[in-house]
Design brief:
Blueprint: E1 2-11, H1 19-24, H2 26-29, E2 36-43, E3 49-56, H3 59-71, E4 79-87, H4 99-116, H5 124-136, H6 144-155, H7 161-174, H8 191-204, H9 213-227, H10 232-246
Helix pairs in contact: 4-8, 4-9, 5-10, 6-10, 7-10
Length: 270
């Protein structure tokens, strides 16, 4: 277990509500300061929405974050919980952090950055396709189709059969060149997206050959879509669109080198 994590729950909050906190604590603004933080959307037993926030930093920084959260000076919403908790170390990454938490950090920075500025696209489907086209480029080439099918299968599991059929038909129509066909850093992409692409490439470069690589990326994709408020049906449609595109043309943008053979527990193509 890794210690010195500060946890808090914010009732009724969204990513935009975190902007004031990030401006008030310089260590939170840069991933190079040794501070890690991320959020997950949550829902209480009564159905109320909110954010679960995690911070890992030097003791003095954590005390300052706790003070700001408790004072109500930087957040327009109620702070329900502020306490120290442990987090597991299941996938050791760099700097002593769990890799899943490091990916959650860059994902959360993207969500807040897009909430602050203009997203790459106003359409959730365009954003989901943009995101999955980037992530699938980090998967070994032979595993990409299976990875996207796994996304589709899991994200449509709770849908009615007719809804799944409809999404499949829409995917076939949507696949191919279009407003969502461009990937990666470009002159028109927001700075938050450019930084996200660079950070995920850097973090996942250490995954080559790791049996859990595709599962980490799958979980990262799911959690990122929740942070970006992309409905699960839209995320599933995006997975089907990108999978259909794979059979017609190469993925645009950065593509990671193929990794060595994974163990049987990794998502493999048939």
């Amino acid at each position: 277990m890794t210690r010195d994590w500060l946890f808090c729950h914010l009732s009724g909050a969204g990513p935009r509500d975190l902007c004031g906190l990030l401006r008030s604590v310089p260590e939170l603004r840069s991933p190079d300061t040794g501070t890690l933080w991320f959020f997950d959307r949550s829902r209480t037993g009564s159905g109320a929405h909110g954010l679960d926030l995690w911070f890992h930093s030097a003791p003095g920084t954590l005390r300052e974050i706790g003070r700001l959260l408790g004072s109500g000076a930087v957040l327009p919403t109620a702070v329900a919980v502020v306490e120290y908790r442990d987090r597991p170390m299941n996938h050791p990454g760099t700097r002593g952090f769990d890799l899943a938490d490091q990916l959650a950090d860059v994902s959360s920075r993207l969500a807040v950055g897009l909430a602050e500025g203009a997203p790459p696209s106003g359409d959730p489907l365009d954003l989901a396709v943009l995101h999955l086209r980037h992530l699938v480029g980090l998967v070994a080439e032979r595993d990409r189709s299976a990875f996207l099918f796994h996304c589709w299968q899991h994200w449509t599991a709770a849908l009615e059969p007719a809804h799944r059929v409809d999404l499949g038909l829409r995917a076939e129509l949507a696949a191919g060149p279009g407003p969502h066909a461009t990937i990666g850093p470009g002159p028109d992409a927001p700075a938050a997206w450019q930084e996200y692409v660079r950070a995920t490439q850097g973090l996942t470069s250490a995954l080559a050959g790791a049996a859990e690589a595709n599962f980490l990326l799958f979980d990262h994709a799911r959690r990122t879509h929740v942070r970006l408020a992309i409905p699960v049906s839209v995320a599933a449609l995006a997975a089907r669109v990108v999978r259909a595109e794979l059979s017609g043309s190469p993925i645009a943008g950065p593509v990671a080198p193929a990794a060595p053979a994974h163990s049987g527990s990794t998502l493999q193509s048939a």
